[in-house]
Amino acid sequence: MLNFKEIASVTIILFSIIDIIGSIPIVLDLKKKAGNIESVKATLVAGIIMIVFLFLGESILKLFGIDVYSFAIAGAIIILLIGFEMILGITLFRHESTSASATTIVPLAFPLIAGAGTMTTIISLRAEYQVINIFSGIIINLILVYVVLRSCNWLERKIGNGGFIILRKVMGIILLAIAIKLIKSNLILP
Predict the structure, then answer these.
(1) Is the pTM of this model over 0.90?
(2) HEC states along the chain?
(3) Is 165 exposed, middle or buried (0-12, 13-18, 19+ CB in 10 A)?
(4) Residue 102 in this model has a pLDDT that exceeds 70
(5) Total domains in the fold of the chain
(6) Which residues does 163 contact at the CB level (< 8 Å), separation at least 6?
């Protein structure tokens, strides 16, 4: 059953993890290098990755003998590290470069939009929220990703570099709080 509070929570969590606003400088750099970014294609590929992981992620975990709670804690640690990256302005996760011809898929759709942090977060959210609400949050985020990708040049002019820095720091603090909540709630097994 749709729960709008859960949908809002999932949407905010995924928005913080995907950090498409904070990724605008990277997207603009990729546009300069590749010449063009296919917003629709990047959004669809990222969406497919996220939705497949939403429905099959738990089966993949079972294949390796990992329970959702352990994965949720591991995901929370990744979220915690991403939050530290955003707040402290450091790089803990390395993004591998790729050829300009594949820029729309790699690194934009994966791993920038639907990367390890996003997939870990999705499986972690399954321990807390109903699948339909997570799915709804993914769809809302895909719409937001598409809008941002289509308007990143305009956003760059309006928000400016200082605005991006502030937004990134605020999202980082939100991620730290989310990570701590996930760790607390999954340390106590039912």
Answers:
(1) no
(2) CCCHHHHHHHHHHHHHHHCCCCCHHHHHHHHHHHCCCCHHHHHHHHHHHHHHHHHHHHHHHHHCCCCHHHHHHHHHHHHHHHHHHHHHCCCCCCCCCCCHHHCHHHHHHHHHHCCHHHHHHHHHHCCCCCHHHHHHHHHHHHHHHHHHHHCHHHHHHHHHHHHHHHHHHHHHHHHHHHHHHHHHHHHCCC
(3) middle
(4) no
(5) 1
(6) none
The answer for 115, left when phi > 0, alpha when psi is -120 to 50, beta otherwise, is: beta
Handedness of CA 76, 82, 84, 90 (dihedral sign): positive
- Looking at the chain, the whole-number percentage of residues with pLDDT higher than 90 is 33
What is the C-alpha to C-alpha distance for residues 131 and 159, in angstroms, rounded to an integer? 34
pLDDT (tens digit per residue) in 164-184: 778 778 878 887 887 888 788
Domain residues for the domain of 42 are: 4-187
Cα-trace Rg, the chain:
16
